[in-house]
Structure prediction request, 752 residues.
Amino acid sequence: MKRILIAGIGNVLLQDDGFGPCVVRMLEARYRFESNVEVADLGTPGLDLADYLMDKDCVILIDSVKSEQLPGTVLLYRLPEILQRQVEPRMGPHAPALTETLLTIDLLGAAPAELLLVGVVGHSYEMGCNLSQSVQLSVNLAIAEILRELARMGVHFESKQSAAEPDLWWTKPPVCRGAGTGAAGE
Amino acid sequence: MTRRIKIDPITRIEGHLRVDVEVDNGRVSDAWVSSTMWRGMEKILQGRDAREAWLFAQRICGVCTTVHAIASVRAVEDALKLQIPANAQYIRNLILIHHALRDHVVHFYQLSALDWVDVLQIPRADPGRASSLAEGFSSWTRNSREEMKAAKDKATRIAESGQLGILTNGYWGHPAMHLRPEANLLLFSHYLQALEFQRKASQAVAVLGGKMPHIQNLTVGGVANAINLDSEAVLGMEGLESIQVLMSEVSNFVHGVYFPDACALAGYYPEWFDSGRGGDRYLAVPDLPRDAQASQYDLPGGYIRDFAADSSSRSVRFMDGRFRESVTEDVTHAYYRGDKALHPWKGETIPEYTDWHPDQKYTWVKAARYEGQPAEVGPLAQVLIGYMQGHALTRKWTDAALDRVSSIAGHRIGIEQLRSTMGRHLARAIRAAVLADLAQEHWQMLVDNISKGDCSTHNPPTFPDGEIEGVGTHEAPRGALSHWVVIEKGKIKNYQAVVPSTWNASPRDKNGVRGPYEAALLGTEIADAEKPLEALRTIHSFDPCMACACHAFDPTGKKIGTARDL
Prediction:
């Protein structure tokens, strides 16, 4: 059985950078997967990403990406593009070192055979716990891309009859204040 | 001739670091360290329930998740004067130890080794001789000729293909690289093995803390683990045994590979004990409490006021009250409003960006000060403080390390020479060896305590109506971490995290006194200004949690060369 990882990458405290974690938590709330599929919110692991990618057959990563396209646009990247483009596409402001990680585990022959990066073009990476509206609207688009990829690979999944409430604890009030605003209570 | 070298952001690991270095006649004559990225995550916590602060704190840095989570719950518990059960102490300690061991190994092999190891020399190495060399250093089972040959074949294939992959940007052939081919091969083969090993340490954390990289088992007042020796659903004998197996594997790697490798590298590059010294002040906070009351710690903390002075005037013991009073953050040269040094409980985080002005404001890092002075934090500080206090495990491993290094170098390297670029690497390996021993001890204390019938893991918190203040400290892989919290009616009123990089990557303060990175760079010899690898080596010795690259500039600002993280 193929070992599959679906991982959200990004910092949930930097607005649109929280896209990846948000998507995987929504996905978990709505769908049930078999035991060979691991769904994870990995935050911003830098090179520690290696731990999670090693010995996986297929990996789907969800992250914010830097691009000239309109905020909210969902872009797909495959493994060869990521490896060839060295540090491109640049992954948000926190530098999750995706290319470096893949090249490093490639030395061991432990890199995944297939990798899909589902990237969203962010609007704002200021401090804050909620996605911008344009990016929020793309959450379902990203989930659709993940499901399409799973179907392509012949991976079984099913909708939960009653979807659970996604665990997006960081978005709960008090509403986060943006950079530079005053003290608590405003 | 004076040249300026700029060390600039490059994607690698969390955060961005820039270092500007002025080079005069082949030596660094001045340095400015700045972070190009504002965190200030503390603001997000204001107004939130103090019980959930740790969840947010854990997201400050994706690499140091557990570190911030534990400092945060400790801060709230300190404000409440809430004692936690002994089991909770041990479980937290085991998590902290394994996080640290993993972090130190990753730093040595993934983030630093290629500053010293020239992979392109490996095709000339003799695997048999590399194996004998390795077997002379330790009894690790994977030092065979076959292992060395496999690593050599891999490096040779990479070199011949011209497809260097992750090794593309190395400093191959740099004059400051002088390991013989067999030593390069030995370290490269362990670099590959380290990638496999590092997962074991994470697995040990996951057994206790839940799915990584964000642990889920913390709670203000203890841990959320339920303990029952007869159950498989909660932490029972099976879980404890699986931790012990992972712990032994981690410990074997640290003692059999990392520690001997760090000693060997240091012995081969003894000139790096004469470079990168930095300031005279060191700070470490005590950690690994041995009981519920935290009346005793297994890692000593303390403050060295002036290492250069005679030992009678050194202040080494950690004094909790003094620590609470003595920490300030100065924003004279940081992009925040004001020019005062404020205590963290009174701390402000009001950004005021002004571009890079070395004489005015030039960084997002505040200047952390202890009794008004900069202090170096990290494994070097911890080892020096432990050694001077006569801490038995620190003495044992420091003496062992210095003996090994001296015998390889062919001359005596003393404790005072740890205050250097290479000394920081060696101190990190010494600390790892100490922690690997302590892991066994804290696991045993946990098992013994449970066997006595104590299964408690949590004391529920009660928040008073009035305002309370607390500080939570943790001696993290990069050094003294403190989270400072002010709570009113259970809600967070103020929150400041004084992280190790606030100490080490600190800018100048209002008196113009340089921070530890800046001070350590002074006097560094630069062989080739177009590839200032040496400056990078000194910065890397601190284990910055930020990526950096060096750009060499002449006095007019014209770029003349580059060195950067791989």
